[in-house]
Amino acid sequence: xxxxxxxxxxxxxxxxxxxxxxxxxxxxxxxxxxxxxxxxxxxxxxxxxxxxxxxxxxxxxxxxxxxxxxxxxxxxxxxxxxxxxxxxxxxxxxxxxxxxxxxxxxxxxxxxxxxxxxxxxxxxxxxxxxxxxxxxxxxxxxxxxxxxxxxxxxxxxxxxxxxxxxxxxxxxxxxxxxxxxxxxxxxxxxxxxxxxxxxxxxxxxxxxxxxxxxxxxxxxxxxxxxxxxxxxxxxxxxxxxxxxxxxxxxxxxxxxxxxxxxxxxxxxxxxxxxxxxxxxxxxxxxxxxxxxxxxxxxxxxxxxxxxxxxxxxxxxxxxxxxxxxxxxxxxxxxxxxxxxxxxxxxxxxxxxxxxxxxxxxxxxxxxxxxxxxxxxxxxxxxxxxxxxxxxxxxxxxxxxxxxxxxxxxxxxxxxxxxxxxxxxxxxxxxxxxxxxxxxxxxxxxxxxxxxxxxxxxxxxxxxxxxxxxxxxxxxxxxxxxxxxxxxxxxxxxxxxxxxxxxxxxxxxxxxxxxxxxxxxxxxxxxxxxxxxxxxxxxxxxxxxxxxxxxxxxxxxxxxxxxxxxxxxxxxxxxxxxxxxxxxxxxxxxxxxxxxxxxxxxxxxxxxxxxxxxxxxxxxxxxxxxxxxxxxxxxxxxxxxxxxxxxxxxxxxxxxxxxxxxxxxxxxxxxxxxxxxxxxxxxxxxxxxxxxxxxxxxxxxxxxxxxxxxxxxxxxxxxxxxxxxxxxxxxxxxxxxxxxxxxxxxxxxxxxxxxxxxxxxxxxxxxxxxxxxxxxxxxxxxxxxxxxxxxxxxxxxxxxxxxxxxxxxxxxxxxxxxxxxxxxxxxxxxxxxxxxxxxxxxxxxxxxxxxxxxxxxxxxxxxxxxxxxxxxxxxxxxxxxxxxxxxxxxxxxxxxxxxxxxxxxxxxxxxxxxxxxxxxxxxxxxxxxxxxxxxxxxxxxxxxxxxxxxxxxxxxxxxxxxxxxxxxxxxxxxxxxxxxxxxxxxxxxxxxxxxxxxxxxxxxxxxxxxxxxxxxx
Length: 1016
Known about the structure:
- Helices cover about 60% and strands about 5% of the residues.
- It contains 43 helices and 10 strands.
- Strands 1, 2, 3, 4 and 5 form a 5-stranded mixed beta sheet that branches. Strands 6, 7, 8, 9 and 10 form a 5-stranded mixed beta sheet that branches.
- Helix 34 (about 755-775) links the parallel strand 7 and strand 8 (about 785).
């Protein structure tokens, strides 16, 4: 055989391969069978090099060559192993006689669990029939415990070698491989425990120890290299020669020593490397809990403290080693709690937290390569199956298997999953597990990542993997396409598996798909988090029943959208809102087409409707606004000039003031919706939200003022007698309006030359009253309430004053609090010259020359203290009130305003109405320490965001963090709080996370305020 022929068979360096064969004693012309099997290996070059290494290490290489030529089964297994696993090749080099493990009838059959257990126990000299087998160090070379452990690890590797030979030549399925690996791990732990008993014989006499397999080992679906998850349960034995039992604490100490010693054996590293890690983190209290507990301790924990995710983990629990009688007692005690987990009040929240945990653990750069956690990966399949088991296994014991494929088959057989879907999901699962097995088998290292095609050796690695999977044409292309196809199918089935049977239950359609009874559908809706499953099912029936095109599209959309609704804080409200919007848009052709073709719009819509009552109410008034969800550019704040031009166009379209202002209020409603959506989707910041709400309020008031002025003048038949302007105050003036804010204003007028002041004032008063009426008149659009309480003399003073009256008042009567209030005054509507004149009038009052004196500072401090004691609502928690509470908005704003009153006369850039702008300037000029500025800014932003989100979530205003935990949790989710990102805090509730963050932030801000405001 020539070098060219070898190249055609897959050898990358055929000249070198020919030279190596000749040197090893292979005849390229005569040994065609051997060469053919080497060429059929995933990596022919690697297989050839491995064979040569074994021949060089072998004491009798001619024997191996002879057997290779004569035994086609051995030849196929050995060549496939050498071409697929460098780690097993290294084992064969260290133990060159172990090629015999791949020869004969035993190498071709799968052993049963007891055979594996007996074999490994015999390896360490233990009696498999003893209740507590003890190893015998004498079976090792030097009689030491260390050598005994090495003997066990070598025996384990030999079993893996034999299994790999069958696996790579197609003699066993991926299901059988996973089951045998789990059984082999269990047998290894039993043998390791026997070694530990020999090492600590006194401890072995004091306790009974059972090892409970969890996760993949418990489900008999282990990988070649996976952590073996375990839980330990122990009980005292009777004291030898005594009638009383061993002390409980002493027994637990002994059991802990045995468990610790047992875990070290497969985890230690020697010439054979590490077999796998034994991970006891799924025990009660996780890594913080005791390693070993008695059975009663486990039961007490799960009855009182365990969260739903822990029962989901226990779904796969089974005794695998140690005292099996005790293990079965554990299983019998825990199982009823596992299958009652769906009745727990926190079931949905914990399941959703598990889903978020999966996503959070994927590094962004690995998302597309992750076989386990990535989209369309193994965890999607496992999660779907387990959730269906937990939901329906409570009443149907036939579903209670810890094995994913067995459980999936049972779900299909008994009508919970369509047969075709179950087959598709099982095939995808087997494909992904097969790929995972091959990647781990290569170096016997734990990995779930596909090779990176962009790395230097990525293409060659993909080619190796593709050949190992049997792709003979273009292995890289075929593998890539197969992986993409499987991932898409898993995502589709993941969505369909759980949700579509719900539609079949309510749509009354003939179908071969799985059909749920009404009770099963109700249980499944409960598992999704719907508080009113019956109502939710009625909504589904309304949306999907019938043969119309609309119903058909809804049946396509809803399996996906139900999952998104369930992720929202209020799934019931989300589904109801979706039905209402869909009913309102009726057969509008673009609506369902948009949702069907743009998954982002549908997902956003589900989230918004299930999160915000405020958005839902606005959307129902104009459902066509759904279209803005298609693009973030549709959600950004629009400039005041653009808004003013649209308002002007609206005024021109109608004849009456009522119709015109209704059009302008409709414009405001659209902008409120745009701003709220941008806020919830985090497209806009807190400052941008405040500016957007302020801009549209100012444009609306400007348009209504023009209408009111023209109407009053026309109705009286007189000429205009005065000029009018509107001055924004408070948050309105500061550009910091919230969704629930009234528009705080003052009205200024200035009689035209020659006009009597009284007549001018009467006309100005009629104008502002008509302005308020137009803005607040009952209509479909949200009203804009104007509040004049911040005017001079408050509610006792005139609603509107002349410019001269303001000048006289401020010159004679103005108090320091009014100077403070004027810091946020900003004319926003009306006559431009009057607006400028008013600004010039108040600037010397709010920015006094030389700053305010010590007496004024003392007065402001007294006012602040008085406000805290008198204005906080009765019963309100001062630590949670966003406006007047400790470290809240008021604390930050009074600090900033005091700085402005003191220094704005000498620093023109401090003359701004915005809180954060003034705070930034104060820090820049050294009036506040930079660290203090950061603390105050963070508190102001957080309090503002909480205040806005309360309105968005509840649909009504509130100034405190809600006391209702359900509402607070919804608020936290709307603000993006998760269940935690780290391993230790992943189950921390979003509500607690928000509360702790708020208290921590405002506590720091309060400390800064007290130091700077009262002592500075």
